[in-house]
C-alpha cells in the first residue's frame, strides 16, 4: 500500500468538531443468502476541518462508506466514529448532499432549504428563519427563494441542496458525487463554491468523486480505493496552494500518480 502522510494539509477549525475515524470497517450486501463484500477493513482518519476526496473504481464502495459515516447504514464489522463517539444513526451534525438534489417538488426553494428545521419543530424560531435566509443568500439564490424546483437549473438545484445541508450547521458535510450530472462550466463554478463554503463554514468535508482533477482541486487529501471489496491503496496529501492550477507541475504529477494507482 502506498501512503503519503498529511502535513500542512490539515486544517483544524477552532472550537469546532468534525473529526472522523473508521476502524476496520467491513461491509457486505446479501444476495440469496450469500454475502457480497463491499468494504474490507477500511481504517482512516479525517481531522476536523479537513476536506478529503474518495476516488476508486465505479462500484467499489465509496458511497457505501459515505453512508456509514452519515449513519444511514451500519457496518457488519468495525466501527465509525465522529469526534470520538460511535456513529449509530443519522445526526444533524452530519449532513449529506447526494448526486440528485432530491428537492421536494411541491415546496419552494426557501421551504426546501428550511425542511430540516421544520422537521425538528423549529421552523418559526427567529434564529432558524435568519439562518435559512442567510443560506439562501450564501448560495446565490435570493432571487429564486419562491421558485419551485422545476423552475431551477441543475446547478441552482444543487445550490439549494447545499444550502439545505448547511442550514443545520453540520460539523461534517458529505458529498456523494453532487456535481456528476452537471455541465462542465456549471461544475467548475460549483467546485469553486464548495471550496468557498468549506472555508467560510468550517465543516469537515468528505467527497466521493470519479473525477481525479476535481478531487485534486478541492481536497487536502485524496484517498484511493481498490476495486471491490474496497481497501485503501493510498492516502495522498495534496500540498498545493489554493486556488489550484491544473497545468501546474505539482498538480500534473499528483494526477499521474492517482491515475496509475486506479489502473492497477
Automatic annotation (TrEMBL):
It holds the Pfam family ABC_tran. This is NitT/TauT family transport system ATP-binding protein. SMART domains: AAA. Keywords: ATP-binding, Cell membrane, Membrane, Nucleotide-binding, Translocase, Transport. InterPro entries: AAA+_ATPase, ABC_transporter-like_ATP-bd, ABC_transporter-like_CS, ABC_transporter_ATP-bind, P-loop_NTPase. It comes from the Bacteria. Transmembrane segments: none annotated. Gene3D superfamilies: P-loop containing nucleotide triphosphate hydrolases. It comes from Propionibacterium cyclohexanicum. One of its GO terms (molecular function) is ATP binding. The keyword Transport applies. The lineage of its organism: Bacteria, Bacillati, Actinomycetota, Actinomycetes, Propionibacteriales.
Amino acid at each position: 500500500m502506498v501512503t503519503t502522510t498529511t502535513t500542512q494539509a490539515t486544517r483544524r477549525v477552532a472550537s469546532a468538531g468534525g473529526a472522523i475515524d473508521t476502524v476496520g470497517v467491513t461491509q457486505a450486501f446479501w444476495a440469496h443468502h450469500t454475502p457480497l463484500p463491499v468494504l474490507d477493513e477500511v481504517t482512516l482518519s479525517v481531522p476536523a476541518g479537513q476536506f478529503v476526496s474518495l476516488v476508486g473504481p465505479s462500484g467499489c464502495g465509496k458511497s457505501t462508506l459515505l453512508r456509514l459515516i452519515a449513519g444511514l447504514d451500519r457496518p457488519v464489522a468495525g466501527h465509525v466514529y465522529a469526534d470520538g463517539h460511535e456513529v449509530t444513526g443519522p445526526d444533524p451534525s452530519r449532513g449529506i448532499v447526494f448526486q440528485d438534489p432530491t428537492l421536494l417538488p411541491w415546496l419552494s426553494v426557501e421551504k426546501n432549504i428550511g425542511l430540516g428545521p421544520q422537521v425538528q419543530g423549529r421552523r418559526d424560531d427567529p434564529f432558524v428563519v435568519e439562518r435559512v435566509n442567510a443560506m439562501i443568500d450564501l448560495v446565490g439564490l435570493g432571487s429564486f427563494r419562491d421558485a419551485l424546483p422545476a423552475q431551477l437549473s441543475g446547478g441552482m438545484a444543487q445550490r439549494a441542496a447545499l444550502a439545505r445541508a448547511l442550514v443545520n450547521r453540520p460539523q461534517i458535510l458529505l458529498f456523494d458525487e453532487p456535481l456528476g450530472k452537471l455541465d462542465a462550466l456549471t461544475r467548475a463554478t460549483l467546485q469553486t463554491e464548495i471550496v468557498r463554503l468549506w472555508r467560510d463554514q468550517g465543516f469537515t468535508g468528505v467527497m466521493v468523486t470519479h473525477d481525479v482533477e476535481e478531487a485534486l482541486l478541492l481536497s487536502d487529501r485524496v484517498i484511493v480505493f481498490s476495486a471491490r471489496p474496497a481497501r485503501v491503496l493510498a492516502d495522498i496529501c495534496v500540498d498545493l496552494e489554493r486556488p489550484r492550477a491544473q497545468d501546474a507541475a505539482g498538480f500534473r504529477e499528483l494526477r499521474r500518480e492517482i491515475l496509475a494507482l486506479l489502473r492497477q
